[in-house]
Specification:
By secondary structure, the chain is mainly α. The protein has eight helices and no strands.
């Protein structure tokens, strides 16, 4: 029974608040494409001006993310894929959910370390985050890593919403599950597009860095 409740908590945290955070993060980053450097700065400032932002991040993002990620690794370790014997859509969803979960967990840890954690350490300010991102994603290796990480994360998120609706008995019949699958895959396309547009925006010259930030970044990533 303990495992049953742990999985339910894991599933619930994946929807609330983590799915909401991914959507919010996609919209915030999209400001880099829609509004350039100043638009992105304004979006970041708006978030950081929220009351009790530290506690909102701690209880709304970091602790749920830690539990969901670590327990998700345990679930992936216990997985018994059988696509070799039964190559059905459901089985492929099962496998991809676990594979993308592992990739997303690694990517998010790295992304938090190279952005949010650097702000906490004082290596970069909130206003410099757009420039900081420019210096990261103009590196071909890191840009490729971002592409893979973002796609893995958004698929894990959208397919996880579909799985949540099924496992919690919200979409019961085949027709309801098929319709929810179309909706969730549409969500995957939209959120992925928002992140991709922001990534390409960060690569633009408008976000080009100053010498001091380039030096700091090279020190950080070796």
């Amino acid at each position: 029974m303990k495992g049953y409740y742990a999985r339910k908590v894991h599933s619930l945290l994946g929807l609330i608040p983590l799915s909401l955070f991914i959507i919010e993060h996609a919209i915030t980053n999209y400001a880099a494409f829609d509004g350039g450097q100043e638009g992105f700065r304004n979006s970041v400032r708006t978030l950081n001006d929220l009351p009790l932002v530290f506690f909102l991040e701690l209880f709304g993002i970091w602790l749920p993310l830690l539990f969901h990620g670590v327990y998700g690794l345990y679930i992936a370790y216990q997985a018994q894929p059988n696509v070799g014997h039964f190559s059905t859509e459901r089985n492929w969803r099962y496998v991809l959910q676990r594979v993308t979960g592992v990739i997303a967990f690694i990517f998010i840890i790295w992304h938090v370390y190279t952005t949010r954690f650097q702000v906490t350490l004082g290596n970069v300010t909130h206003d410099e985050l757009g420039t900081w991102m420019h210096d990261i994603v103009t590196n071909p290796g890191f840009f490729t890593f971002f592409l893979v990480g973002v796609i893995a994360t958004t698929f894990h998120f959208s397919n996880g919403v579909w799985a949540f609706l099924v496992s919690w008995g919200i979409t019961v019949g085949p027709r309801a599950q098929r319709i929810s699958s179309y909706i969730c895959m549409g969500l995957f396309v939209i959120v992925t597009a928002l992140f991709m547009l922001s990534l390409f925006a960060f690569r633009g010259e408008e976000f080009a860095s100053t010498a001091s930030i380039v030096t700091s970044l090279k020190t950080l990533i070796g």
